[in-house]
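Dear support,

We are seeing what looks like truncated structure output for some complexes. This example has three components. We would appreciate it if you could run it in full and send us the complete token output so we can diff it against ours.
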Amino acid sequence: MTGTPLVEADRLSCNFPMRTGLFGRHRDVWAVRDVSLAVEKGETVGVVGESGCGKSTLGRMVLGLESPSAGAIRFEGRDLSTVAGAERRKLARRMQMVFQDPFGSLDPRRSVGAQIADGLRVHNIVPASEIRAEVARLIDVVGLQKNAAARRPHEFSGGQRQRIAVARALATRPDFIVADEPVSALDVSIQAQVVNLLADLRRDLGLTMLFIAHDLHVVRHLSTRAVVMYLGRIVEEGPSDKVFGSPAHPYTRALLAATPSISSARKADEEGVLSGELPSPANPPSGCAFRTRCPLASDECAAAVPDLAPYEPGWKVRCIKAGPSHRTGDPT
Amino acid sequence: MLRYITYRSLVAVFLVWIVVTLVFLLLHLVPGDPAEVLLSQGSTAADPQAVANLRQRLGLDDPLWLQYAHHIGGILTGDLGTSFRDGAPVAGQIVQRLPRTLEVIVTAALIAVLFGVPAGTLAAVRAGGWIDNVISFLSSLALSTPVFVVGSVVILIFAQELRLVPAGGYVPFAVDPARHVLLLLMPAGTVALALWAVVARMSRGSVLDVLERDYVRTARAKGLKRRRILRRHVVRNAMIPVLTVLGLEMGTLIGGTVLVEFVFNWPGLSGYLVSAVDARDYPEVVGIVMVISILFVFLNLVVDIVYAVLDPRISLSR
Amino acid sequence: MRKLILPVSILAVILALVVLAPVLPLADERAMDIPHRFAGPSMAHWLGQDEFGRDVLTRLIYGARASLSIAIGSALAAALIGTALGLLGGYFRGIVEIFTVRAAEIVLCLPPLLLALLVVTIFGAGFWPLILALTLLYTPNYARVVYAATLQVRALDFVTAQRALGTHPLQIVVRTMLPNVLPPLVVQISLVIASAIVIESGLSFLGLGVVPPTPSWGLMIRAARGAMEQAPLLLLWPSVALAGTILTFNLLCDRLQSVLDPRAVPAGGAIWLRRRRTAPPAPRTAPDEDARNDAPADLLSIAGLTIALDRPGGIGSGMELVRGVGFAVRTGETLALVGESGSGKTLTSLAVTGLLPDVLGVTGGTATYRRRDGAVVDLLAQDEDGHRRLRGDEISMVFQDASAALNPVHRIGDQLTEVILAHRAIGRAAAKREAVELLGRVGIPDAERRARAYPHELSGGQRQRAMIAIAVANQPKLLLADEPTTALDPTIQAQILALIAGLKRDNPEMGVVFVTHNLAVVAEIADRVCVMYAGEVVEEGPVATVFARPRHPYTAALIGSVPEGDAERLVAIPGTVPAPGHMPPGCSFAPRCDHAVAACREAPPPEFSPEPGRRTRCLRFEEVT
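Here is the complete output from our reference environment:
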């Protein structure tokens, strides 16, 4: 750890009360539970997990778009819940977001230029006379044609829209960007364009990034550190190479094994496939949430939720049987 | 399912309470003295003695909470006060007239659905063809002509010019069933016309929408026969939004009965309301509005329950 | 926009008449002429005179004045209040919602006409009580409509993006939300005006609205009813005026809806539903004899398949979305059809089963299929009935989104029984038993109970299993799976892929066409791969050899763009897929291709066979890798 991390989530939880029955036995559905995560300046942290694991909620909470039911988010050491109103909005300049859906993330009724300029105006990034020039510069940075500013979003393809969304996020000159599945909705060849763009920006602008995706390959490619989530909790966190190279949590291993690979000679087979489905977050299993599907599960796993314990320096695993796989599921 | 019905029923009870309170508040919170407002005709000021008497009769001198308690208590015991005009208990009149109004409403809804759904489905299946155009034209016309205009024109043509039917009236079913039905069909058919148009248009749109759904393609991919697809996978699903609209239109339907009962001299609750409003007979108006509104809430409850039968997703998610 | 001309111009005329009434050369609307009461139309009185001898035309126009000013006035007042309530309630939610939208909705507990009658009872009849009653009546309507639209827009990411930018909430409401909820609002205004005219005239008709001697249409009809015997025409004029005006507003509303939200009006009809007795298949290009004789053992052999937009007179009719596609599937083989969106892979699979959307048509090619009974048929020449007999029986499909592809209102078991009964003459009970067995076979636990569940009660993975059970219920010879795992999570995807592989082991005769965009899935499940780009097959061959040494630059680039391995930068294909109708004259990939030379841009490249069992559509296939 080198001083204060840029963004820090401290025991963050988010639950939705759900009523079952008529007069409501209230039952909490935990979308995110007890997540602590520090993102150092210049780092790209990738968050992976299957749908419903809470990765998107985590991303939105970090930006303050959703309020946590417990825990705190600190930006440069300042607790976000203690800042409000105009000052909080000022802080928003330094944290931006790129969304998954390239069609929903742009206002269909306003020109691309106007939407990129929003951030410039709200935070007075440049004098009013230079806004046009600045928008043109941003459009150039993300690799779009100069005349893009005057056009409406519907004139662009999915990949181009995602570039526009990146330009809009960059307008406020943020230090930190949350990218929530930014390439999932794109075609393979276009996905590569956007992944390359994000990699370039990170290098050129020194951006810190929280990269959320369900595609392990993309996360592994982009991130320096990886976080694997299951049913609202972090189950493994560590350097990308290590987490994906020799996963220590059985869920990470299963996820890797399930992800098809172009270079593997493996054929689809009922053997070796993780059985069962994600338990309902309204009614999670006792103890380790993964034990119902885990090949290593034993009685002790049901006793208590395991700690996210250090496994190697900078590498933490939430499993009492953490260790290298017995049967390697790693494709590479 | 049972849980859902219980839930909806509780909501209905809550709504009835809202209605009762709303009517109370409307009468008591409007600026000015209701007694004075009631007794003043045009610019002539009311006689102070009469105002004082009326205030006393209406209990307006009591504190507001006591008045409210009386109001609720009266409704719970079925005592809706007595009419200004003839001093008769309002509840008695309502009990006598309510079934006749219900008869019109239910008949009208049945006519509208029985003719509207097939017409809309046919129009959708033949979208763009001449049948579609004819149905679309007829429904626009029906939708744009207010019920009292339709009623008046019906009387003008069928009673006045062709002399086929009487110009309205009422005969109890026990006395002359055929004539009762004939006299019922005129107001019911008139109110049904606009509702038919709504149902037909909604059915058409809904069927067209369902035809585009993936599950219809699945049904085709299964190799099912056209008829079966249309019946089980298209019309069945298309009825869900139609029912929603039917529920939303219940208020208009009830409003329509007020007008047709007046036009056809049908001695129902709604026609009674008009004369009460005209005479500004407070207890009568309040009583009738309350009963009709409760009826409205009840009809919506019925729609909600049918809805849950048609759409299994509803009863779970509430 | 042209659709709006008719209703808008009629309304302009009506409004002009109403506004200009005082300066038009009309008779005095209150001047009585008792001797000429009930006089018919004449030069001086075009529409005749009423029961007091007043001029009917004048009274009609002045009646419009009353009706329209009440209706439009209250519609706009209600719009203003309702929109504010709906926007605030929808955007801020929580406590604000309760005090805005929910509070307004209390009014909806009363039937509309009754509420108006209550207001009239309290305030008496007249112009202002009517405005008040109608405003009160319609405010919750607007609040609801705007609230619903606000909720919808609010959930969109561009609003979240504004919040993330740090824009002031009120600025978001006014600048971002308001313009986006405007379309439903405008439609609602025209709808409310029509409805307000109905209520106003109804009240006036009952004698509880506009007070005589002010003319109003409702009052005129009321008076005419009493004089039906003497002058039936007096009933006609106001009725026509009233119905006509309402009709125009309704028309405006319909047209606005279709202009502002084109999706709300479905394109219309389902051609497959109409039994066409005389339906000779459209003339097609003659089947290629070579292709037919090439591989006699093929289960399905497609040649020259072309699919085009088929809307007579419509925009872009004849535009080809799939051009000259050909491939063959052998018995027991899994062929992957891979490509990006717009490549035509899904359309190709739909064309084989005759399930193309109505706006598309097959304009050329053959699909030779060998039926169970040994007969050879051209699938593209079948009519709906011909397809129907094969579908679900010999040829079946699995779709991408099982939650949409299963009918939400029928039980899983019934949806499965249905397909069994459609093709086999067995009893209902036997079919039901078989359905439960099938559900168990595709890995749904507790199948007996799950058969009685509705689709929404199953998880995404189980729904896709049920979908697959439906597809394999009749032991098909050919299974077409259209992106069956795309919407699923990796671990569930792996389960489904394993299931399909398992089903193939059970039924080794079954040929599978697996449509996907995911190359890694192809590697895992397919024997051969057919790569499509912009509506054409660009390369085909055994998976292992194609992936090891692609012979088309597009295939090579696709493989390079997958973020596996240690490359610092991914291979990104510059530009985008050309839009149909804007295909370049030469090779369709040439504008994005690193290897393209002048010859590539001149004419579409022919098909080459670099080695037995492989095809590529690239002039420079030797140099690609």
